[in-house]
Specification:
The chain has 358 residues and is α/β, with parallel strands linked by helices. 30% of the residues lie in helices and 12% in strands. It is built from eleven helices and ten strands.
């Protein structure tokens, strides 16, 4: 049975059972296939789930990422990006990495209070924290919840250094906090821009702001004194790889001082979801895209090894690295590595439950 097209405004048309379930769903043709007249006018609504947090700071020792700790206000993302490596994580909630990932969003309403407690702990040692690494902290639901802004305000209050990755123009809302942090060298914002082609952007990232809008947000932050950069991620061979130089040039014109890229990763359920997306939107090149990925992943579609998962191996992977390096040299990108300032950190007051002696 051929599944229906993706719901309006959503990225995946599949909703496979999570890998931890004791049962699995399977589609079959019962003779009641939907027609265009049967489909709802609007896509499925977003449902919010409360995720109570014992800790909001997540620590890692991966050599592939330039941070040791991160904060993720949300699990799941309304942007609905077909390629999102965070999709398989929804299985830990007993939800599908497919459509559930885009429509059933877990959020941490107590995250600001928990973060304040963690920063006030006597044993806490300040080091830069990455805000929004798994899913976007400025996704559409943030407009009404304001959770990411509360966390950012606490980091500004305590003068805590923070690095940010986003593909949302909503970050302009918080330009007051970002500019304040930038005065003391406490922040850097990287914008994820995967393509400059509007049609491809709508298919890849159905509810994310357009590439042009992201570039405008980047320029506005730069004008406010906030250091900005661009991530061409993911790089998808035979689909958007030809745009690498164009994206970096546009970002440089908007004020980017740093640039990087990441090869498409397809962990766990994401393989099925992205393959289906490819066949749906680009059936003429789906096999070629997957073949090139396998050539850079040792014959597999995913390689989880540190040092290999972000860039791949082989001739094509080496070519992409050279293209990025030469483009950055030509544009003057990555000439300096920003070290965020940790000397300004001042822990919040601890709620000890008793009055001070003096």
């Amino acid at each position: 049975m051929k599944p229906a097209d993706p719901p309006r405004g959503r990225g995946s048309r599949l909703n496979p059972t999570d890998r931890f379930a004791d049962w699995q769903r399977a589609a079959f043709d019962d003779g009641w296939a939907q027609t265009a007249d049967d489909l709802p006018e609007h896509g499925p609504p977003t449902t919010l789930l409360v995720d109570t947090a014992r800790s909001v700071i997540v620590r890692n020792t991966s050599p592939d990422v330039p941070f040791a700790q991160s904060i993720n206000p949300y699990k799941g993302c309304e942007h609905g990006c077909a390629y999102c490596f965070a999709r398989p994580g929804h299985a830990y909630l007993g939800l599908s990495p497919g459509l559930d990932f885009e429509t059933r969003i877990a959020w941490k309403p107590d995250a600001p209070a928990v973060l304040r407690r963690e920063l006030a702990a006597p044993g806490y040692r300040c080091q830069p924290v990455a805000l929004r690494i798994n899913t976007d902290g400025w996704q559409p639901v943030e407009r009404r919840l304001g959770l990411t802004r509360q966390l950012l305000a606490l980091l500004a209050e305590t003068r805590h250094p923070v690095s940010i990755v986003t593909k949302s123009a909503l970050i302009e809302r918080d330009i007051d906090l970002l500019a304040d942090l930038a005065q003391n060298g406490l922040v850097q914002v990287m914008f994820s821009i995967t393509t400059l082609t509007p049609r491809l952007a709508r298919q890849l990232e159905p509810r994310a702001p357009s590439p042009a809008r992201r570039l405008a947000a980047m320029a506005r932050l730069r004008d406010a004194g906030v250091p900005v950069g661009v991530l061409f991620a993911p790089l998808i061979p035979a689909l958007n790889d030809h745009e690498l130089e164009r994206v970096l040039e546009a970002a440089h014109a908007a004020g980017a001082e740093a640039a990087g890229y990441g090869l498409l990763r397809l962990p766990r359920e994401l393989r099925q979801l992205f393959e289906d997306w490819l066949v749906t939107h680009y059936p003429d090149r789906a096999a070629h895209v997957l073949s090139l990925l396998r050539q850079m992943r040792g014959g597999e579609l995913n390689d989880s090894r540190f040092g290999h998962r972000m860039r791949g191996d082989g001739v094509f992977a080496q070519l992409y690295r050279q293209r990025l390096q030469r483009c950055c040299e030509r544009l003057g990108l990555n000439r300096m590595r920003r070290e965020l300032n940790t000397a300004r950190f001042r822990p919040p007051a601890r709620d000890a439950g008793q009055l001070a002696l003096f």
